[in-house]
Amino acid sequence: MEISFKDLKIGNNKISFSIKEKEMNGIITDNIELIRKIFSFDPKVIQNSKINKKTLNINDILTMKKKISIIKNRIEQKDYYLTVYDILLKTSKRKKLEFKNPDKKILDSLKVVGLPITLLDRRIYSLSSSEKKLLLLAIGLLSNPEYIIIEDPFEELDRKNEKKMILLFQKIKEQYNKTIVMVSNRSEKNYQYSTNLVIINHNKVLLEGKTEEVFKKIDFLKENKIEIPEIAEITYLAMKKKKVKIDYHKDVRDIIKDIYKHV
Questions:
Q1: Half-sphere exposure of 240 (CA within 13 A, CB side)
Q2: Does an H or E element contain 98, and which?
């Protein structure tokens, strides 16, 4: 199953795209705020549109919103002097989440993302970049969403913590049956880590499909000034200059093996 948006009103355009359920989805866009509006079901965007082939009423929208958690790329500055416990509790109250045992729910969310309970009394400003990212994910998991929309998930992370983060996303997807949507204006990470991809640029859907298939259309992407991942660029140049057909890979070592095999 998937979430299918049809005829979303974006400026003078109407766009349609789908998100595959229980998979690693990527959205590359020049307008992250727009994606936020779509998944928060902003009335101006979803007016007269269809979601899963149906025009939603207010009750349908409320039901859908409960299934989705939007995780912004950073904690707001005004919350930097709160403790980890305070911001988790504050979010629960703001979203009107009802738990029999709020403290247990908070601890469970921290456990899922691998943050120790010793962080509960720490103030946000004292956390490392990776701890803040994990805390944002813990906050997003409080509502037990089916769809997790993550903005710039790897921003400010070094390679080591980036690897830890993607492994965590995969664990959450597989162990808890969640759908992950990584939203960014950069191509490299979405090429590496997503299985399905949508490219939305200048309020238009340029391409949609399996990530490898999308990035086979290099000339079209370049014409539309979309950043080409380095690994995809190497494959493209090898095929164009050497006139051999090799597969698109996500690991440069696999590309090298393929090039040696065919050239």
A1: 10
A2: none
